[in-house]
Input
Amino acid sequence: MGSMIKRLVGILLFSLFARASGTDCGKWFSSDCLADSDKRYDKGYTNNITEQQSFWKQYEGYWINEFLQVNNPITGQDFTQPSFFNPKMPYTGIPYKLQRAFYNESFVGSRFYSNRVYISPPADEIFCNQTIPEDFLNVIGNGQCGVNGYSEDAGVYGTSSYEKDGRIQFLRSTGEYGANSNPNSNMTAVDELTFFFASTNEADGLVNVFTGTFLNNLTQISGTQSTFVQGLPNNPILNTQVFLMTKVTREEWLAAIEQEYESANVLPEDRIDVAGIQGCFSGDACLTKEEWCTADPECSSSPYQEPDGTLKAGPIVGIVLAGVVVAVALIVAYFDHKIRQLRKQARHDFARRVAQSVTLTPGSRQLSPEALAAEFKKIDQDKNGSISNEELWEFVSSGKLGEMTRPEFDALYAVMDADGNGSVDFLEFCAYMSLCKADFNEAKDRMSIRQVRASFVAPTEASRSSFAEQTAQRYSSRVSIKVPSNIVEEDDKEEADEQNEDQDIEEKGSAGQE
Output
């Protein structure tokens, strides 16, 4: 019983502290989950860009971009184009007239693809007749200055973010924009009609700031774009552009590109085959799966991981209290059981000892008051009218049927001394004896059986005659001990009443047989 209580308490404490160290959130006994109020922690929240921000559905598609004005915001003069180009110095000039741009903006789940083609008409004769500075060129590609135009692809690619707020974070650019990473670049919807784009190229310091607003039932976008280079000592702003984008169908977009190639007289080898290319236009410069998965929430691990929950104070107190109550109840039940066992064993041993000592009148079925008084006087050695603890211990320890243990004796004396004054008077002795009827009769029966067995050891005529006497004495020795209920301790009344009732029935049966 004791080991079972220890195991139960141990299991309770272990389970309590185990749950406290790594419990799931959102349970009745634990803290709320962050995902309930913060979508960044919600694994079930979509990573699809257009589902996070419906604005991008109207931005997706094919666009033709016309640059209406390009100037230097510091001088207020138009940006000089065409100008000589130095391949060793980026952004030094474009040896062609003002270009047109063709954008294909698409979304696939959590990923954003922006594939673009820039087509520039040839420079005029005046520019081509100028002396070319050292290390500079007046053409890009295979054409001739003033005769052939030029085309170049560009791309920007990004994904939805771990913030799950509809923002597009860019991973890398390609083509004309340079095959550089853009970890600090993003595009964000400001409201239902306006969006903002900011791009920083860490390799060369080029910064683009782009703002666009939808017009004419979402069929056009008007905006501005400023470009500057971080770190240049003089006039870091390269240009500011005013543009107008018009949305078209795919067929219209492909036709417009083909027409622009012809109009600008771009050589076939310098043209971009936009119709036959899937993905990005820059071929080998496109993002690999590994690059995508450095930031794509669909194939990378978010920094926003739901932490383990913590146990709430209320349930902790409730569990602890419940555990304490259960443990105390088990302990009380255990010790109550042990005390009952001790009392039972003590009563049994005491009855055996009395059975050894008491002498009954042959044929009598009652333990008479005289017999009880005689037994009481045997135990009361100092003849002061009460039995002390030492006197009772001396009596139970002197028997031939084995010695009573001290805990059993203490339990015996505690029950026998009903008023708790430290001594047992005659009434208390009689009251306790009324509880020992069954144990007393059992002890006397066993003693009679041993006597009967002993008579068969030497089957003489005398032993045979004594056998009848012993057998008669055996049945006559099943005594009845009756004590008035008013001297029985309250806790033992029920047991005494049951024994008296059984004895009355037995006596009536015996009388009927006679």
